[in-house]
Amino acid sequence: xxxxxDLNQQPESVMDDEEMRSCCLGNLVVIINTRGAxxxxxxxxxxxxxxxxxxxxxxxxxxxNPTGEIRYMRGLTRxxxxxxxxxxRSWGNDWVYYSVGLDRGQGRVKDWVGEDYLPCLxxxxxxxxxxxxxxxxxxxxxxxxxxxxxxxxCTTSLEVLAPEMRAFVxxxxxxxxxxxxxxxxxxxxxxxxxxxxxxxxxxxxxDYEVIPLNIAxxxxxxxxxxxxxxxAPFASRSDEEIAAQIExxxxxxxxxxxxxxxxxxxxxxxxxxxxERVAHAAQTACxxxxxxxxxxxxxxxFLFGSCASFSKAGDETFKALEALPCTVYINLGLxxxxxxxxxxxxxxxxxxxVTEALHKMVSVNARYPSVNVTANFLLGTTFSxxxxxxxxxxxxxxxxxxxxxxxxxxxxxxxxxxREEVLPMFHEIKEASGLPAYVxxxxxx
Length: 445
Ligand code: SF4
Hints:
By secondary structure, the protein is an alpha/beta fold. The chain has two domains: about 20-175, no CATH class; about 195-440, Aldolase class I (TIM Barrel, Alpha-Beta Barrel), CATH 3.20.20.70. About 30% of the residues lie in helices and about 20% in strands. The strands form three sheets. An eight-stranded antiparallel beta sheet has the order 1-2-3-4-5-6-7-8. Helix 6 runs parallel beside helix 8 and helix 11 packs parallel to helix 12 (about 420-430). The longest helix is centred in the N-terminal third of the chain and has 19 residues, at about 135-155. Iron/sulfur cluster binds near residues 228, 229, 306 and 333.
């Protein structure tokens, strides 16, 4: 059994179409072919998706992708904060702690992030609350426990194991060397042409488990305030480049593809590449990656659009997206409905354009059942009262009936001084809005 980082070769798996099996290895329990939830399932706690292997010590459970990389860790004793809480490692090699218990006194987590749990990132982002679970002893201990378990695996004779169990443990040893994990993330970024600096907020619907495929680079605006923009001018990628990327991604994910049913079409304004290119790329990628209703629900496709690309998109674009065997989520960065604020942000659009885009969003959502358009606005104590009032007025102009499909996200600017005032501001806007409103937590991949 070998695991390779050669991008043209699919990593093998010992967990394809097999029954669940377990055995002991010293003080560890090794389990292969565990079936978690279907990739599109949603639960009241972070679900373990798809097929995975598991190694348990007395204190911790560690889960592995079919290609062997560690994916989840959870404590099994009372030292762990909550049985529903997990550490998850992304394909970009970042750890995320899923908290379900940090909402005391702040309203339910579900009211502000739309899910029952709050992802706490291990890197700088726009968190609305300062949460540092990584310094809690129970959670910090998971990382040292994993190092110990990894060391034990590397130094224990595997002769006693049945061939499939041994192959799984060997795969885990090979895939989880620190440098191998870093190389794996670098390989992904190399295939798509760089790290995904921000995922659309709608990817929360699939627990951020998306395969990224870049069909364009850059964006139309280069807003002054934006910390994730690329310097490059906007350019679509050619059909040939997109096809080559799909092939390379297929080889990269290998047997772990079976755990995916969602695609992110990057990067910052994929809609500006045109409806035809978006639909063609989505269709080709979903087929190549084996996505489909057999995984529990239609696949999901996520992309960003801008005020300009969305205004330009006509019925032929939305008809092409509606015809796909997927649910398509388009997320628009509108930021403010106040001219002075837009000017201050260096965003070259007007309040009238933002108003028009929001009303078009409501209309597209009503007319195309499989297309789901959402929009982002900025939130923070450093903005003027006019900014806050303009968002309240615009979102309040949509009736609850019209706003039954789609939603808006309020993206907090990084606050260092008056962070505790931001969540009450969000709740005030949410109350006034005819569309469901959630906080946008920027996650990378
Ligand atoms: S906010 Fe959006 S449109 Fe503006 S620079 Fe950033 S990525 Fe580009």
